[in-house]
Write a structure and sequence with these properties.
The protein has eight helices and five strands, in the order E-H-E-H-H-H-E-H-E-H-H-E-H. By secondary structure, it is α/β, with parallel strands linked by helices. The two termini are about 15 Å apart. The structure holds shikimate-3-phosphate. The site of shikimate-3-phosphate has 10 residues, from loops.
Length: about 180
């Protein structure tokens, strides 16, 4: 396939499938796959709920930014599955777009809710996952739109189908640029 930007970056709401789709895409391309949330947990030695509970969201976002900086600056080709809020930082968005092709896995709230269940392990969904997902998705709509080079709709699709759709869309984008 035509040479891609150094990295392929998946963005989207909690439950959009960024991790499972990222793993599949990396396998198909023969690239490394890194999940930013897992990297945060590994480098800090703490769980994301623990960071939110004891240090707050602002501190979590600072750590998330440092981790993305490190991941996206390394040479070599990586599929990066970001956390859903990575697009809240304009600095993250600029870096993601500079260092990769950014793909938004777009999903309807019903799809997200079916996947996140009761929101375990996701502090922002702790109280009322359905209401929180709707509110957060609406708040972030423009951030995802602005961050993305490519949008792939995931409703009703398996992770394999989404991975194939992402690869097809990215190839199309490469040809057009
Ligand atoms: C968040 C999404 C989570 C995680 C954290 C905050 C968000 O990642 O980074 O709980 O703000 O949307 P996933 O999108 O992988 O669930």
């Amino acid at each position: 396939m035509a040479p891609l930007q150094p990295h392929l970056v998946l963005v989207g709401m909690m439950g959009a499938g960024k991790t499972s789709v990222g793993r599949r895409i990396a396998r198909q391309l023969g690239w490394r796959h890194v999940d930013a949330d897992k990297r945060i947990e590994r480098t800090t030695g703490r769980s994301i709920p623990d960071i939110f509970a004891h240090d707050g969201e602002e501190r979590f976002r600072a750590i998330e930014h440092e981790v993305l900086e490190t991941l996206l600056r390394v040479p070599g080709r990586t599929v990066v599955s970001t956390g859903g809020g990575a697009v809240l930082s304009p600095a993250n968005c600029a870096l993601m777009r500079e260092r990769g092709i950014v793909v938004w896995l777009r999903a309807a709230p019903e799809t997200l809710l079916a996947r996140v269940g009761r929101g375990n392990g996701r502090p922002l969904l702790a109280d009322d996952p359905a209401a929180a997902l709707r509110r957060i998705a609406a708040e972030r709509q423009s951030a995802y739109t602005d961050a993305a080079h490519v949008i792939v709709d995931v409703d009703g699709c398996t992770a394999d189908q989404v991975a194939d759709a992402v690869l097809a869309a990215v190839k199309g984008q490469e040809r057009a640029s």
